[in-house]
Amino acid sequence: MSAPSATNNARITINSARRLRGEITVPGDKALSHRAVIFNSIGEGTARITNFLPGEDCLSSIACMRQLGVQIEFDEVTRTVVVHGKGLRGLEEAGDTLNAGNSGTTMRFLAGLLSGFPFQSVITGDGSLRSRPMKRVLEPLALMGANLSGRKNNTLAPLVIRGGNLKGFNYALPVASAQLKTCLLLAALYAEGDTTLSGLIESRDHTERFLTAMGAPLEKTADGLVMHGPATSLKALDVEVPGDISSAAFWLVAASVHPDADLTLRKVGVNETRTGIIDALLEMGADITYSNETMVGGEPVADLRVKSARLRAGQIGGSIIPRLVDEIPALAVAALMAHGTSEVRDASELRVKETDRIAAIASEFGRLGISVATRPDGLAITGPVANLKGNLVKSYGDHRLAMALAVAGLLLPAGQSLEIEDYHCADVSYPGFWDDLGRIVER
Ligand code: S3P
Fold first, then answer.
1. Rounded to two decimals, what is the model's pTM?
2. Is the dihedral of CA 188, 194, 200, 205 positive or negative?
3. How far apart are CA 103 and CA 354, in angstroms?
4. Integer Cα distance of 96 and 422 in angstroms
5. pLDDT single digits (tens) 379-414
6. With contact defined as beta carbons under 8 Å apart, do 357 and 395 qualify?
7. Torsion angle in degrees (nearest 10) through CA of 135, 139, 144, 146
8. Of 30, 253, 267, 437, whose CA is between 20 and 30 Å from 191?
9. Strand boundaries in 53-119, DSSP class E
């Protein structure tokens, strides 16, 4: 999202909390909701998706797939989506530009998928998305034989794609990005011959699980991920979407750092490529326990109970980063109350998320009286911070920053409050966040 404008500068006030108590069922996982809609659009048959996340990003995916000729029904009340798959080759040229809104996932997935089709597609997004790096997807897709271009010398959206006639290739991923991995796997479904992805392929593995369950010719070998293209058909897959651990992360942190907290989070997805936040908090001394572990939609799910704890500083870097990349704004709040200097390293990807999250955390935490040391690939915060002060803070239109700031607000000294500008952006991934916050806070 672009800088707050006259229409998106609504503010919410967050007061300090005396106690945090209760149960929360966080909404469906964003990453899985996108995949369920986009992948089932090229499936054979009809798929029913329950507990779909009705966040703005996922609604962008629905809108784009509809423009490509897919019939999709969405019941907002039951959070159920029905996708009438068009089969692998049934998408139609859209009559207009596709708009991915704020969603990097929608844009990068569609860039790969539409590279498989011999018609022209134009994909744009909001101000934030139009400034996020697209060369990482355009370059390898061009190597596969697609015709693509983008603004600023093929680095930025809007993107123009004319696909078809793809050839499989060997490619070492230069960034640990599940969006890039998925983009290339989708293109590989349409490519003649094997596509082998190596390099930084260790990131969330929802795509591998989902496409395999649909019957895609995908395997993991010693060389990496291999798609034996072209695929002949994928079967539509009904799926119940687990709760989003990236949304649960705000409550995991809130309860860990608040002195009087006991929260239970129901049916949270605990795929181990996503549970870096739990591992990091446990390493810092958090009190988090799992129960009712089961499988939902091909993914492990559990109830999580989290209670107040005395945290020590965390050293977050290396291979855990892709497992918690979206949770770093929340972790930065945990660092405020942890004893010692917590450091995040190897996370330069934060510079190119919905906003530059390193710069945004430093500037907005600064307004609360917290000093954040920044580096090109991370940050350092020394805690526990004794005297947080209430102030007006900005979300920069970044959903995860808005929610992290809200959690920081709960830790203010009694009687103090903070105001968050452009708080509605939380709807991108967590519609209902502010209501859930109101329900667990006791004053
Ligand atoms: C996502 C992958 C991650 C994550 C994003 C969702 C996905 O992005 O930050 O919120 O659904 O695959 P990158 O692939 O850019 O790391």
1. 0.96
2. positive
3. 8
4. 30
5. 999 999 988 999 999 999 999 999 999 999 999 999
6. no
7. 60
8. 30
9. 71-75, 80-84, 98-99
List of residues 6+ apart from 152 with CB closer than 8 A:
none
Listed residue (91, 89, 81) closest to 58, CA to CA: 81
What six digits make up the tokens of 258? Answer: 């608040």
* Pocket lining: 105 vs ligand 1, CB cutoff 6 Å: yes
Q: Compute CA distances 259 → 18, 308, 311, 372, whole Å.
A: 9, 6, 11, 23
Query: Which residues does the annotation mark as catalytic?
Result: 326
CA distance 204 to 322: 7
Query: Exposed e or buried b for every residue in 47-72, given b needs 16+ CB within 10 A?
Result: bbbbbbbbbbbbbbbbebbebbebeb
Q: Which atom of ligand 1 is nearest to the CA of 30?
A: 11
Q: Which mutation among 38, 204, 206 tests ligand 1's pocket best, with the greatest number of atoms within 8 A of CB?
A: 204
Longest distance between any two alpha carbons in the chain, whole Å: 65
Instruction: Spell out the domains of the chain, with CATH numbers in brackets.
Output: 5-28+242-442 (3.65.10.10), 30-239 (3.65.10.10)
Q: Check if the beta carbon of residue 12 is closer than 8 Å to that of residue 423.
A: yes
User: Which atom of ligand 1 lies at the shortest distance from residue 429's CA?
Assistant: 10
Amino acid at 147: N
302-355 tens-digit pLDDT? 999 999 999 999 999 999 999 999 999 999 999 999 999 999 999 999 999 999
From the CA of 108, how far away is ligand 1's center (Å)? 10
Alpha helices, H only, 90-231: 104-114, 135-144, 151-154, 178-188, 206-213
Whether 195 is in the pocket of ligand 1, judged by its Cβ within 6 Å, is: no
Strand order from edge to edge, sheet including 11-15: 11-15, 417-421, 392-394
Q: How far is CA 266 from the centre of its chain?
A: 19
